[in-house]
Design brief:
Blueprint: H1 8-35, H2 41-66, H3 77-109, H4 113-138, E1 141-142, H5 146-149, E2 158-159, H6 162-182, H7 184-189, H8 195-205, H9 208-226, H10 233-236, H11 238-256, H12 261-267, H13 269-285, E3 290-292, E4 295-297, H14 312-328, E5 345-346, H15 361-365, E6 368-373, E7 379-384
Antiparallel strand pairs: 1-2, 3-4, 5-6, 6-7
Helix pairs in contact: 1-2, 1-11, 2-3, 2-11, 3-4, 3-6, 3-11, 4-6, 6-9, 8-13, 9-11, 12-13
Organism: Lasiosphaeria ovina
Main location: membrane
Protein name: Rhodopsin domain-containing protein
């Protein structure tokens, strides 16, 4: 196959970004399978998304073979339009899987009550929008082959307004990107974590902003090919092929970055966990008393918070912090000691609004102190607290 010089940038870009996304997804799946040992639905969705991206690359190369990047003769036009028609549903299918993977990941990590309800609804919205964007472009003309046979006049049929379908899908795509950026970032920023860790988490989950930028930049290329007559689309379709591939694969890469954090913690521990180290050293200097997420804990119930946190919002943020830490700190490491499960202190407390002598099962379960010894002689104290039970 001879590649026209005008199509060479598109070929290089498609191959490069698809290969990069494939490598990142392989690292992600390897991390989830062998390091974290916890594979979720979001990992399955991103695996199907990279397969769709590879399918887009295959159909794109068929476009190049059919004449992308050069002026084609009229008999070649149906073959080129057929390859062009095939790329659009695959492009939308890959984006839908990528966005669903990000949403499921947010649902698993940031599972506060309000956020969980919103994300469940948003998953349904994404699925409905994705089904429309795929099926609407498959059946944009009826019969289907009227899409590429219309210029020949050999078949009677009808098409929807292709420009309206294309730009409505592009607008919905940008809006869905903005939602996926706006939803997790504010909640992550309110977590009671060191600033450096918060910045890392926000960058990991906010990486979709790059995909949103590519979606906006792609609009110009989309307009160029939308207003071009069918005979000129082979020449003016190079830019849209470039930006479509970038958008798909950048989205896949950004969706996979949060899942790579356990590996990054091992490779760059001081950058990602320096706040945790500093807090541990401070706890050692204070005689085993450690502040976790803004709370003070020790072997007795005499610890007090400097501020009274009783609002529902603070409780949700604390629960979100626990969820984020659980999701990203589940890294696999060689066992250096046997956990001291006998040293489990479960206390009965009297939450706000109950009598001092009344036993509260809910309160006792929310205040657990577990400890374990490591081979280096250090003891790790883990405290899980409910802000509503602390004054």
């Amino acid at each position: 196959m001879i590649i026209p010089p005008a199509a060479m940038p598109a070929v290089i870009t498609n191959c490069l970004f698809t290969s990069l996304a494939f490598v990142v997804v392989c690292f992600r799946l390897g991390t989830r399978i062998f390091v974290v040992k916890n594979v979720g639905a979001d990992d399955s969705l991103i695996a199907f998304a990279i397969l769709a991206s590879i399918g887009f690359l295959v159909v794109f190369m068929l476009q190049v073979k059919a004449g992308l990047g050069r002026a084609i003769m009229f008999p070649e036009l149906p073959g080129f339009l057929q390859a062009l028609w095939a790329t659009v549903p695959i492009y939308n299918f890959a984006l839908m899987l990528c966005k669903l993977s990000i949403t499921v990941q947010c649902y698993r990590v940031l599972r506060t009550p309000h956020m969980a309800r919103f994300l469940r609804v948003y998953m349904g919205v994404l699925a409905a929008y994705g089904a429309w964007s795929v099926l609407g472009n498959v059946f944009v003309c009826w019969p289907v082959d009227f899409y590429w046979l219309e210029p020949t006049g050999t078949l009677r049929g009808a098409c929807m307004d292709k420009g309206a379908v294309t730009f409505s899908n592009a607008a919905l795509n940008i809006v869905s990107d903005l939602v996926l950026i706006a939803v997790p970032v504010p909640l992550l920023w309110r977590l009671q974590l060191p600033r450096r860790q918060k910045i890392v988490l926000v960058c990991l989950f906010g990486g979709g902003a790059f995909a949103c930028v590519t979606s906006i930049v792609r609009l110009h290329a989309l307009y160029t090919i939308a207003v071009a007559p069918p005979a000129e689309q082979s020449v003016k379709g190079v830019d849209i092929a470039i930006w479509s591939s970038i958008e798909i694969n950048v989205g896949i890469i950004c969706a996979s970055l949060p899942a790579l954090k356990p590996v990054a913690d091992k490779l760059f521990p001081r950058m990602l966990l320096s706040g945790l180290y500093a807090r541990t050293k401070e706890a050692a200097r204070s005689g085993g008393r450690e502040a976790v997420g803004g709370f003070s804990g020790s072997g007795s119930h005499s610890g007090r918070r400097s501020k009274h946190v009783a609002s529902k919002d603070a409780y949700s943020v604390h629960r979100a912090e626990i969820r984020v830490n659980q999701s990203f700190e589940m890294t696999s490491a060689p066992a250096t000691a046997v956990p001291d499960t006998t040293n489990l202190d479960t206390r009965t407390v009297a939450p706000i609004g109950t009598d001092d002598g009344q036993t509260s099962r809910d309160g006792s379960e929310r205040n657990l102190v577990t400890s374990s010894w490591h081979g280096d002689g250090c003891k790790t104290i883990t405290i899980t607290s409910d802000p509503r039970d602390m004054v």
